[in-house]
Amino acid sequence: MAKEYAVEIRNLIKEFPSPFRRKKHRAVDQVSLTIEPGEVYGLIGPNGSGKSTTMKALLGLLAPTEGECFIYGRNSLKVDSRQNIGFLPENPYFYKHLSGEETLDFYGKLCGMRGKMLRNRVAELLELVSLTDAKDRQLGGYSKGMLQRIGLAQAMIQHPKLLVLDEPTAGVDPIGSRQIRDLILQLKQQGITVFLCSHLLEQVQDVCDKVGIIFQGKMIRDGRLDELISMKGQKELIMSGVSDELLERIEKMIADDPQAKLLQAGSPRTTLERLFLSEVEKATD
Amino acid sequence: MFTNYFFSSARIGIIAKHTFTQLSRMKVFYFLVAFALLIVGASFFEMPGGRIASDSAEQDLRMVKSTAMGAMSLFSVIFAIAATALLLPKDVEDRTLYTILCKPVPRIDYLLGKLLGVLALIFLSIALMDILLTGILYFRTESIISSELANAAAAGFSSEQVAYYESIIRQQGPTWDLQFGVLAIFLKAAVIASIALLVSSFSTSTLFTIAISVLVYFIGHFTADARDYWLYMMGDDFSMMSKWMSQLAVLIFPDFQLYNIIDHSIEGKNIPANVIGRLSLLTVFYCGIYSILAWFCFRKKEF
Known about the structure:
The complex is a heterodimer of chains A (285) and B (303).
Chain A: E1 7-16, E2 25-35, E3 40-44, H1 51-59, E4 66-71, E5 74-75, E6 85-88, H2 100-110, H3 115-128, H4 144-155, E7 162-166, H5 174-189, E8 193-198, H6 201-207, E9 210-215, E10 218-224, H7 225-229, H8 244-256, H9 272-284
Parallel strand pairs in A: 3-8, 3-9, 6-7, 7-8
Antiparallel strand pairs in A: 1-2, 1-4, 4-5, 9-10
Chain B: H1 9-24, H2 30-43, H3 56-93, H4 96-101, H5 107-154, H6 159-171, H7 176-202, H8 206-219, H9 223-232, H10 240-252, H11 261-266, H12 273-298
Transmembrane segments (chain B): 28-47, 68-88, 115-139, 180-199, 205-224, 244-262, 274-298
Pfam families (chain B): ABC2_membrane_2
GO molecular function, one term (chain B): ABC-type transporter activity
């Protein structure tokens, strides 16, 4: 029996007509990828590289010029494949006149949820995205981070097995961004498959199991993150409580080995984001 | 959860309800205040010359009806075109359409939900205006009848003449024929809304949708002439080009002259129930055809 992937994109080509030109513009060129159930996959690439087009083809918002996209074995152009998908677009606006709770209620009803089941799910998701206190406020008064979080909640309303997130932290401050990243990790622990596009490489690195690098419409590299970013032929030791004498001895040992070479020694640095978050955390305590 | 992935009345109802709420928060009901002022103003208007002319009493009532129903027609057509033309591009612009179509929502359900939401709001607005019109017309009719009958009695008319005169005035008051006329206003708006939906399903510009819908609205008033030209013009002086053009016009455009019973109801003429029944069926047919065509254009549309 053939293996069922959460997402399978086979030789996807998408061309758009260019105005006043006979030749069409190829936005995505022979892209193939697979995501196994429960994996977090990050598609990274510069602006205009074909990330969003690939994502839209997967969601059935664009029809492939050639190739096919499958979600849990179902062609993504079929409506029934969408029962398994939750989607958060880049910079979503939603309906400003609805409150957070009404928004989730609306999307839940679209998926056929009703009554107590829907009410419980809405309450559960509001809690998950930390918006219970703001559930009665209209979305017009939500901050960007709150909109992203309510967007994530609407994407999850019908218990989808796959979440597709387009730039989930775009324009969100570091605290909101961290909350979204923590949510993605939480979802990963629950076994939900996540397919995300982002420019923020550090965040992709933090949450993804697999990544694909797309450039000028072509997938130039993809695979497991650990394998892709590990530098072959180099090893790293991070130690604490090391005396100067011990360090000297280690350096000497390396120098004595004809093949080994010490490339860098010093104190590891934190990132500016981690520093910011820890300082804010301290200030709020 | 829904298992029907093609057509679900429950899902259509949810989108329609939401569209209704969305539109009603755009402050369209302010128009009703303007309408109320207009109709109250018209009800105080009296034809020049007092009650000397024999038909001036009916003229006053006709004036109220004409003003009110003109405003209702204007509101319903403008609203049907503008609201329908705005809804789809707004959902695309705000990316809310993506989040809806990425749920298990067939595109036909989305389109019908939007259309029904617009129609529900037009229906409610027209119904509110109708209640106001009927109420004002009732009091105005009773007031005119009491004064006219007093004048007639003073002038020594016979009871048969007085009863006849009263029936003529009442025919201009709040009758079922008036309600049929109001219903025809709604039916006409439903057709023009479904045309705007069809245009917006392939158009990328709101302005284009509005312009084309208005054009179709005007052409629709000449469709009957094109049909007559097609059916009855024969002979050598009838070119093939003219024939094709008239055939095309009849097939593509709705015949809005059929909705002229609105004018009949303003004039106080009798409108048989079977006429309004047939007009309702024709409207369902027009809306159905235009909605199916809209779905054909929209089902493969890329975003």
